[in-house]
Amino acid sequence: MIERMAARLCALRDADQFRELLVPAGIPLCSNDYLGLATHPRLKEAIARALEQDAQVASTGSRLLSGNHARWEQLESQFADFIGVEAALYFPSGYAANIGLLGSILKVDDTVFSDAANHASLIDGIRLSRANRVVFPHLDMNYLEDALRAQTGSGEKVVVVESIFSMDGDRAPIAQLVGLCERFDASLIIDEAHATGVVGTGGRGLVYAAGRSEHVLATVHTCGKALASMGAFVAGSRTLREFLINHARPFIFTTALPPYSAAHVSEAVVLASQADREREHLANVSEHLRARMRAAGFSVTTSESQIVPLILGSNQTALRFAAALAGAGFAVRAIRPPTVPPGSARLRFSLNATLSTSNIDALMDALTHAGGVSGN
């Protein structure tokens, strides 16, 4: 077995797909701390305050056993009120939330229509459900409409997308998706991981901004990105929450996070709701980078968010560009298959509100130099 693992690692190295853990250094361009809250003193204070107030440090069990501290109940109510839905249920990670949601509500005779650019956690949740799968080309609404029309089975139809896609930075057309789902009697699930805290009034997400919350079966809101904390919420109806409590295995069989984690997330939601200035600045620096990249002849693809990819094609080229930028003081990673399709290796600039336009200009100087040195 060790020999087989070693051979597979060698194959990854030969294909320039080997990954290793690195400690980020330099100006952050690969962090999901979109609002710059990760160092906010109020988050540290919230944790310290909870540690002083609570008798125990650990949860000591799953939420269904000994781990259901009052802080979790209060946090879930707070978040449901924040995004304007009936209820929410907290999971210890975004991956667990998507696995738990999709793996529990879908049945083998259902059909899931999944965007080709969906995150791995959505893909794995669908696979675990053993439901029928239709993978439609990225944001191809005509293809999705034809596929929904052609599906005549007895099971439920469910469309699954991200609101802001993690590798391309583009946005799903929420109103159009809602319209298609209503026409063809399909349910809609939207992962708001990269929109929560960033988009909409108070950072409530793209679904809220589109005014379509009541037309969506479930939204998933990751806390480890703009909220600078941990875990994720599945939000929707009270019925959905009760169903997940009783059927979602990652929720049922996972030890709850410590109660002070709930205090951390709660304060992060408050801070994010008040971060209008940071959201506006983030939007401005993101557009500034896209404008500079276009002017320099780089492709910006369809990005319209704080995620701005630079498609470079080969794994080797992406690694070379990443190394050149690291040498210039920028923390960025080469994104390669299987995270993205073969032939679309890239740099994924993940911007945050602590960056300035001068940081972006310095990045473009380094990027232009790297392109000249690399022959691209």
Mean pLDDT equals: 94
Distance between the termini: 41 Å
CATH superfamily of the largest domain: Type I PLP-dependent aspartate aminotransferase-like (Major domain)
Which CATH architecture of the largest domain would you pick? 3-Layer(aba) Sandwich
- Please count the beta strands (DSSP E, at least 2 residues each): 12
Domain module count = 2
The biggest beta sheet is recorded as:
7 strands, mixed
The number of distinct helices, counting runs of at least 4 residues, comes to 14
Strand content: 5-15%
Order of helices and strands: HEHHEHEHEHEHEHEEHHHHEHEEEH
What strand order characterises the main sheet?
2-8-7-6-5-3-4
Helix content: 40-55%
- The Rg value, from CA coordinates, equals 21 Å
Task: Classify the secondary structure makeup into a structural class.
Answer: alpha/beta
Q: Tell me the overall shape.
A: globular
Say what the CATH topology of the largest domain is. Answer: Aspartate Aminotransferase, domain 2
Question: What are the low-pLDDT stretches, counting only 5+ consecutive residues below 50?
Answer: none
Give the CATH class of the largest domain: Alpha Beta
Summary keywords:
12 strands, 376 residues, 2 domains, alpha/beta, 3-stranded antiparallel sheet, Aspartate Aminotransferase, domain 1, Aspartate Aminotransferase, domain 2
